[in-house]
Amino acid sequence: MKKVLTLLCVLAMATAVLTACNTESGGSGTDGSGVLNSATSNSSGTGDGTGDGTASGNSGTGDGTASGGQDTPNSGGIAGGGEISGEIIVAPEDEGQPTINPTIEKVLPVSTLYVAVDNDYIYYISDSDEHIYRVKHDGSGEEKLTDDKVSWMRLNESGKLDYATNIESGGKYYTMNTDGTGKVDNNRQLIDYYVDDVTGPDGMVYYFMTEFEQGATKSGIYKRNAGAEESTGTLVYEGNIHSFCIMDNYIIASLNRSQSQALFRINLDGSNAKKITEYNGVSPVVNGDYVYFVNQSDGYTVYRMNKAAVEK
Questions:
Q1: What are the extents of the domains in the chain?
Q2: For residue 1, which of 245, 201, 228 has the smallest C-alpha distance?
Q3: Interval 262-288: pLDDT, tens
Q4: DSSP one-letter code for 72
Q5: Contact 113, 308 (CB under 8 A)
Q6: pLDDT of 57-114, one tens digit each?
Q7: Which residues pair with 185 in a beta bridge?
Q8: CATH assignment of 2-310, given 3.30.1340, 2.40.30, 2.120.10, 3.40.50?
Q9: ∠ at Cα 95 (90, 97), nearest 5°?
């Protein structure tokens, strides 16, 4: 089920959009060492990340990305010794809160708000021109997929790209193949962004609503039976949600805080919310062994962290 959010950045300090969590099976598209070769300056134009923090020779990180699957203790920080060039903002409500603190690594060098990942490509909307691009996991083969100016996208459960054009372009909703062909107009005009449901491993459908929407008494993540109306759902986690995905038996959520966004790991029943990293992140998605996210603390570039480390 899709719903329309009627105001830009409803209850959000950044663009409020749910990036559905696409957990395709299979490898993550790495060279086998657990480190993306795309972490080089050759990935210019790939709008959702940076690469100078993860040299291709970096074979071991604190979150289990070492070659051969070795897992070293979590020490946090950035793989390869890179440094965050932006500001890390800790909201007052999160001060002193313990974090899981997995090692993270930068994977693409261009700014974006939205990322989607499958086994072959990383997809993003370039902040510079608002078009959708894709690039292989090794940083090669960058392609522009749309001439439309796009405000949101996701990789849907059928393996196709859904996207919404920006307000100036009419806010329309399209679906296309991941190579940019087969564009289909879904005959919906969106005032802003739409939100898609996420199916959990328990078969329940998870989604977020704000207290201004019909059927919602509080803002937060809800769940309902598949095929049921949204208004029949029950509140799982109360909070101001920017975006979230499902990772195995956890919700990975970007929560809107007073001054920033923060990534949290939450049990499927809404209990035991735990901050993942000090870095400000949005739009988490899962592919293979990794959780990818947009790191606001480093120019809205794309990072990843090992799932096993996040689950600890």
A1: 2-310
A2: 228
A3: 999 999 999 999 999 989 999 999 999
A4: P
A5: no
A6: 333 333 333 323 223 334 466 775 556 666 788 888 888 888 999 999 999 987 998 9
A7: 174
A8: 2.120.10
A9: 115
Query: How far apart (Å, rounded) are the C-alpha atoms in residues 225 and 280?
Result: 32
Interatomic CA distance for residues 300 and 151, integer angstroms: 15
Where are the alpha helices (H) located in the chain, listed in sequence order?
A: 307-310
Pair 301, 47: CB distance under 8 Å: no
Tens digit of each residue's pLDDT (9 = 90 or more) over 25-72: 333 333 333 333 333 323 333 333 333 333 333 333 333 333 232 233
DSSP3 helix / strand / coil % (the chain, rounded to 5): 10, 35, 55
Of the candidates 281, 273, 285, which has an alpha carbon nearest to the alpha carbon of residue 298? 281
What are the Cα distances from residue 10, in Å, to 13, 61, 275?
8, 37, 23
Distance, in Å, from the CA atom of 232 to the CA atom of 239, rounded to the nearest integer, reads 19
Q: Measuring CA to CA, which residue among 213, 218, 287, 309 is closest to residue 20? A: 287
